[in-house]
Design goal:
The chain is α/β, with parallel strands linked by helices and about 300 residues long. Helix content is about 40%, strand content about 25%.
C-alpha cells in the first residue's frame, strides 16, 4: 500500500482527542456533558473543538438556546470521523488478539529429518495451547535452512547447524548422536565400534551438504581414513538411508533418533572415539523481533 507522505502532514490531521471530543459534543449537545463523558474539563473540550475547526477550516457547531447544534459541515465530517475511530478501534482489537495469541500465524522452516522426527511433538504441544494460530511449514534442504530465515521466508527454523553463526540465536530442542546401522548381512567387531572399523565397508550416507554428512566427513578426515572408506550410495534423506540399509545394501550412518527401537530388521552400533553428537535447534535471526506466536513457540522449550 502506497502512502503519499506529502498529503499526510501530522499538523494538518485531526488528533484522536479532537475526534473524540467532536463525537461527544455531537452526541450530547453540551460542552459540559461531553466533558463529563470524556473525563475532561469543559475548557479542555472547548479547546479541542476549536482546534478541530481550525484544522478543517469550518464551523462545526452553532449555539441554539441551551444546546450546540451541528452545522451542515459537521454532518459532512461525522461519517469520516466515525470511520476513522472505528478503524482505530479495530486496530486495537486486532493487536490485542495478536499479542494474546488469539490470532496470528507462524512460519517454520524445517529440514526433512526434523519435520519427521522432531517437529510433530513440538507442533502438537503448541497447537493444543494456541489453536487459533495458523501454522505454515516450509520444508527445505539443510543448506537452505538459514537462507529461508535471511530471505524472511520463515519466522523460525528447526534443524541442525554445522557451526554457530553470530547472527543467529539457537535453542536446543534435542541432542542426538551418530550411529551405524546395518542388517545381519554385515559383521561388525563389537556392540560399540570405532570409526576405523568402517574402512572398506560399503557405506550409505547422505549427500555432501545434507544433514549429518559434514560431521561424518570431518571425523573421517581427522582419522585419516576418508580415502579408505567405500561410499556405496549417497542420498538426500536419512529415511532413504534406512530403507537402503534394510535392503542389505550397506552400512548406514544416521542419527540414533531416526532408528525405530522396535525395528528388528537392523542392528544399531554406537560409534566411539569420538562420539559425534549434534543438536537439533530452533533458530532465529538475532536482529529480528519475534512475533508473539514465534516467541510462544520458543517458550514451550524447557528453560
Amino acid at each position: 500500500m502506497q502512502i503519499d507522505k506529502k498529503k499526510l502532514l501530522l499538523k494538518d490531521l485531526p488528533s484522536i482527542r479532537q475526534m473524540l471530543a467532536f463525537i461527544a459534543v455531537y452526541e450530547f449537545g453540551h460542552m459540559s456533558a461531553a466533558a463529563e463523558d470524556l473525563a475532561l474539563t469543559q475548557p479542555a473540550v472547548t479547546v479541542l473543538i476549536k482546534e478541530l475547526e481550525n484544522k478543517l477550516g469550518v464551523k462545526l457547531f452553532d449555539r441554539a438556546t441551551r444546546t450546540l447544534k451541528p452545522t451542515a459541515a459537521a454532518e459532512q465530517v461525522l461519517p469520516f470521523i466515525l470511520r476513522a475511530l472505528n478503524e482505530l478501534d479495530d486496530l486495537n482489537r486486532v493487536m490485542q488478539d495478536y499479542t494474546a495469541l488469539h490470532a496470528g500465524s507462524l512460519t517454520l522452516a524445517v529440514t526433512p529429518y526434523s519435520s519427521q522426527n522432531v517437529l510433530p511433538k513440538l507442533l502438537s504441544s503448541f497447537q493444543e495451547q494456541h489453536p487459533q494460530i495458523r501454522i505454515h511449514i516450509v520444508e527445505c534442504e539443510p543448506l537452505q535452512l538459514i537462507p529461508c530465515l535471511l530471505k524472511d521466508k520463515a519466522d523460525l527454523a528447526l534443524g541442525a547447524l554445522d557451526k554457530q553463526l553470530p547472527s543467529l540465536s539457537t535453542y536446543t530442542v534435542m541432542q542426538d548422536e551418530i550411529v551405524a546401522v546395518c542388517t545381519d548381512k554385515f559383521e561388525l567387531p563389537s556392540a560399540d565400534i570405532y570409526w576405523e572399523d568402517l574402512k572398506q565397508q560399503p557405506l550409505i550416507l547422505t549427500k555432501v551438504g545434507y544433514g549429518i554428512r559434514t560431521s561424518i566427513d570431518q571425523v573421517l578426515q581427522q582419522k585419516n581414513i576418508l580415502q579408505d572408506v567405500c561410499i556405496a550410495h549417497e542420498v538426500s534423506l536419512i529415511s532413504t538411508v534406512l530403507a537402503l540399509v534394510k535392503s542389505g545394501l550397506g552400512i548406514g550412518l544416521v542419527p540414533r533418533s531416526a532408528v525405530n527401537a522396535a525395528d528388528q530388521d537392523v542392528k544399531v552400533y554406537p560409534l566411539t572415539d569420538p562420539i559425534v553428537q549434534r543438536n537439533i535447534s530452533l533458530i532465529h535471526l538475532k536482529d529480528k523481533n519475534l512475533s508473539p506466536s514465534a516467541q510462544a513457540f520458543l517458550n514451550q522449550l524447557p528453560a
